[in-house]
Amino acid sequence: MTYCLGLKTREGIIGFADTRITTGNDTTSAKKIFSVNRNRHSLFIMTSGLRSVRDKAITYFNEVIEENDDSFNKLYKAVNAFAEQVKRVAGEDKSSLEEAGLSFNLYAIVGGQLELDQEPKMYLLYPQGNWIEIVESTPYVIIGNTGYGNPILKRSFTIDSSLDFGMKCAFLSFDATRLSANDVDYPIDTITLKNDTYQMIEHRYTEKDLGPLSDYWNSRIKDAIENIPAQVLSKSFIEETQLVK
Questions:
Q1: What is the pLDDT of residues 202-222, one digit of tens each?
Q2: Mind listing the domains of the chain with CATH numbers?
Q3: What angle do CA 108, 111, 113 make, to 5 degrees?
């Protein structure tokens, strides 16, 4: 499984991805963020699904970028080009994969800003090659293991959040997923793009780097539960007859 998260704020966008690769009983680590960082051409792709499908589609798309980069002046055009490569791989491999009992399940989060984009954009691409844009009403998207990381984001993150706050939410979302699923783990890769800078910044973090943040959060959760003003719940320990009196 995978945990990839894209967040959009009014300041810019964030990409956040684990690196755990599971194949049968074997686990390895591999980068799940592909990036292109050229003059006024900044974009990244994060993927979930079969690694072989991902690598083939990215290889084809990288060749398209090398040959036709100047033809992309808005991010959606690059997303369409990547979608064409995903469909190309589906045409080549989907039938044989399904015969082997495997699903053609490549999902992708594509973020970036090209020269005619008024701000950084972000899209969710489906295996069929269609896509949706991540907008103000839904300012984040998760692919891979989507269940455990949602609550912290729904409770705290909005389009008006700062990039710094968004990164903290992204980590806590990942941490909740990591604790609940054995197929998501460190190291994690982050990528950020501020409005109109066209300069993406990437970092990799290990458990040694971020483990203290997880410990801090756990202790604060325990303190908050202990101190929550929940007198109404104390009725749970009193017999109904005593409450009537």
A1: 999 999 999 999 999 999 999
A2: 3-244 (3.60.20.10)
A3: 150
